[in-house]
Amino acid sequence: QVQLVESGGGLVQSGGSLRLSCAASGSIFGIAAMGWYRQAPGKQRELVASTANSGYTNYADSVKGRFTISRDNAKNTVYLQMNSLKPEDTAVYYCNARKFGAFKNNDYWGQGTQVTVSS
């Protein structure tokens, strides 16, 4: 199993910044990608940003140019730098680690960290 522990959420004013961190431990061998998802009240969980071992990164259109995902492989940690935050960024943010399987992928999730952006 992979354990993911997130930190860095909180309350910030519109236009402010936050940095989320997610440390992976346990059976980390074989993790092919890590990323961040978010879920706002009454909405489905959505991808925010992801980074693969190849270096490929992917961002939701709504955060491009404002958020940056990065990864420290030596620390098994992925970060999400969030700038120019907007009230619509308010959500619970979840860290994800993915292992590719022959027939299906295995996803692991953190417990979530609340990000609240006030207007």
Plain-language structure description:
The protein is mostly beta strands and about 120 residues long. The chain contains no helices and eleven strands. Strands 2, 4, 5, 6, 9, 10 and 11 form a seven-stranded mixed sheet that branches. Strands 1-3-8-7 form a four-stranded antiparallel sheet, with no helix packed on it. It is globular and about 45 Å long.
- Secondary-structure element order, N to C: EEEEEEEEEEE
Mean pLDDT: 96
Quaternary form: single chain
Strand content: over 45%
Number of helices: 0
The number of E-state strands comes to: 11
Low-confidence stretches: none
Task: Report the sheet with the most strands, covering strand number, pairing sense and barrel closure.
Answer: 7 strands, mixed
**Class derived from helix and strand content:** mainly beta
Radius of gyration from the alpha-carbon trace, in angstroms: 14 Å
Helix content: under 10%
Principal-axes geometry comes out as globular
- End-to-end Cα distance, whole Å, is 39 Å
